[in-house]
């Protein structure tokens, strides 16, 4: 291997095209190259030997924490025994079959089978095709539109980037594409009519959805997709009554529901799935990140029993399901998934999400809710956010150009803690690994308080 110690920054700027990075400033050396070399528990180490508490678990995915020997060994053993075989035309490996069973055993009992992919984006791409196949199989080819929500995040492909409801992922790419539509975000803090209660606002969201369905024609609307708890769009738990009211509208017009659990799946909310946590009854569940705790790339679409029956019925007429990836159910990734899910059970990490997560959110609230520029501290399980405002009483937001969120995240980084400035609004997000201790939770809160004071006084 090349010795990179002196050259890594130059090689990086000249050769590495980074995702979600400003190309100009990075290539010109105006933004830092950060090289991460190791990780243990909730901490990562960089190439300068600095250690940081990773309070966002990578991209809210290293749920089991860093340095888990059990998962690393399972990956090594699988690579040694059988690095690859495909899963087309009925092939499988012990790892992929065992993992499929483990996933369905953990999913809500209305779910039936899992289709494997590699990323959250490709899993949602699969979902779109499953929905279209299903309606073609059922003899209603005009029922194809999919309603997503502003501020939803469902991936960055052409169709999944269209599902995403954030401008950064649309602008400059000619997205969103038909037949994707967007309805209101369930964002109570940012509601227009501040006199509304949470229940009233949830009803308002359900009414807006119903109005959109009626305007489009219910016979043309196939599905609705949402994260149980809005993630990248701001880390926003749903307002009271939201999911039952949405579900009632969807049931009324025979519209499928996709719960995108890429972030919430496998414990982040304190329940195994966000669907259980909020009483959602999905037809499809998207999973990725926490499935392997990001030790290997793996995603899945979990299909309900009801939808499975409809798909199977259609197969005789439409032929085999002509959709597959070379790496679907890759055995090395599946072995990582099996070891990860076992570890989450063996260490009872979801109980820790509930206990330490509640401690962390309470401490964050106590430390920051009273600050003149903190509009809201919110969260669930082991995920939380602090939203900053210019004026608390008038709920006036800062000019985006001031970049208050990124400044606070940078000040926090300087203090050895990694949080995430969410892409729209001044929102600092946290989603630590599930193995967080109360001491480390207190450390994150103390450093956050200092970072906020540094930027906002
Ligand atoms: N859905 C949700 C809810 C996500 O948070 C993400 C990623 N942040 C995705 C889908 C896309 O996953 P990936 O980046 O693995 O394609």
From TrEMBL:
<dbReference type="InterPro" id="IPR015421">
    <property type="entry name" value="PyrdxlP-dep_Trfase_major"/>
</dbReference>
<keyword id="KW-0032">Aminotransferase</keyword>
<dbReference type="InterPro" id="IPR015422">
    <property type="entry name" value="PyrdxlP-dep_Trfase_small"/>
</dbReference>
<dbReference type="InterPro" id="IPR015424">
    <property type="entry name" value="PyrdxlP-dep_Trfase"/>
</dbReference>
<dbReference type="InterPro" id="IPR005814">
    <property type="entry name" value="Aminotrans_3"/>
</dbReference>
<keyword id="KW-0663">Pyridoxal phosphate</keyword>
<dbReference type="GO" id="GO:0008483">
    <property type="term" value="F:transaminase activity"/>
</dbReference>
<comment type="similarity">
    <text>Belongs to the class-III pyridoxal-phosphate-dependent aminotransferase family.</text>
</comment>
<protein>
    <submittedName>
        <fullName>Aspartate aminotransferase family protein</fullName>
    </submittedName>
</protein>
<dbReference type="InterPro" id="IPR049704">
    <property type="entry name" value="Aminotrans_3_PPA_site"/>
</dbReference>
<dbReference type="Pfam" id="PF00202">
    <property type="entry name" value="Aminotran_3"/>
</dbReference>
<keyword id="KW-0808">Transferase</keyword>
């Amino acid at each position: 291997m090349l010795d990179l110690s002196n050259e890594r920054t130059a090689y990086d700027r000249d050769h590495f095209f980074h995702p979600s990075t400003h190309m100009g400033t990075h290539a010109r050396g105006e933004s830092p190259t950060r090289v991460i070399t190791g990780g243990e528990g909730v901490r990562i180490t960089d190439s300068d030997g600095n250690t940081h508490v990773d309070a966002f678990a990578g991209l809210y995915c290293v749920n089991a924490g860093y340095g888990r020997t059990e998962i690393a060994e399972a990956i090594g053993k699988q690579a040694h025994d059988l690095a690859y075989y495909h899963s087309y035309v009925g092939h499988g490996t012990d790892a992929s079959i065992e993992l499929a069973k483990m996933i369905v055993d953990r999913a809500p009992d209305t779910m039936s089978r899992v289709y494997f992919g590699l990323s959250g984006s490709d899993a949602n791409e699969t979902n779109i095709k499953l929905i279209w196949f299903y309606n073609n199989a059922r003899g209603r080819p005009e029922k194809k539109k999919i309603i997503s929500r502003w501020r939803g995040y469902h991936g960055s492909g052409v169709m999944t980037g269209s599902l995403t409801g954030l401008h950064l992922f649309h602008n400059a790419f000619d997205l969103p594409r038909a037949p994707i539509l967007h309805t209101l975000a369930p964002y109570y803090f940012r509601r227009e009519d501040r006199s509304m209660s949470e229940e009233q606002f949830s009803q308002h969201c359900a009414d807006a959805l119903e109005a959109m369905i009626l305007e489009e024609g219910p016979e043309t609307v196939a599905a609705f997709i949402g994260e149980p708890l809005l993630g990248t769009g701001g880390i926003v738990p749903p307002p009271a009554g939201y999911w039952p009211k949405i579900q009632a509208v969807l049931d009324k017009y025979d519209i499928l529901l996709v719960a995108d659990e890429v972030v919430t799946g496998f414990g982040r909310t304190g329940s195994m799935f966000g669907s259980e946590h909020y009483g959602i009854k999905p037809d499809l569940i998207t999973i990725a990140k926490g499935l392997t705790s990001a030790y290997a790339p793996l995603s899945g679409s979990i299909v309900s029993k009801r939808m499975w029956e409809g798909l199977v019925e259609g197969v005789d007429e439409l032929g085999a399901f002509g959709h597959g990836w070379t790496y679907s159910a890759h055995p090395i990734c599946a072995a990582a998934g099996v070891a990860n899910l076992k570890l989450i059970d063996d260490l009872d990490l979801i109980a820790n999400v509930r206990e330490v997560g509640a401690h962390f959110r309470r401490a964050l609230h106590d430390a920051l809710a009273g600050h003149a520029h903190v509009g809201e501290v919110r969260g669930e399980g082991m995920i939380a956010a602090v939203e900053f405002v210019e004026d608390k009483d008038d709920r006036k937001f800062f000019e985006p150009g001031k970049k208050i969120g990124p400044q606070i995240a940078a000040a926090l980084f300087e203090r050895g803690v990694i949080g995430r400035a969410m892409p729209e609004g001044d929102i600092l997000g946290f989603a630590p690994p599930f193995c967080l201790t109360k001491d480390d939770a207190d450390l994150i809160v103390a450093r956050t308080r200092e970072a906020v004071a540094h930027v906002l006084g």
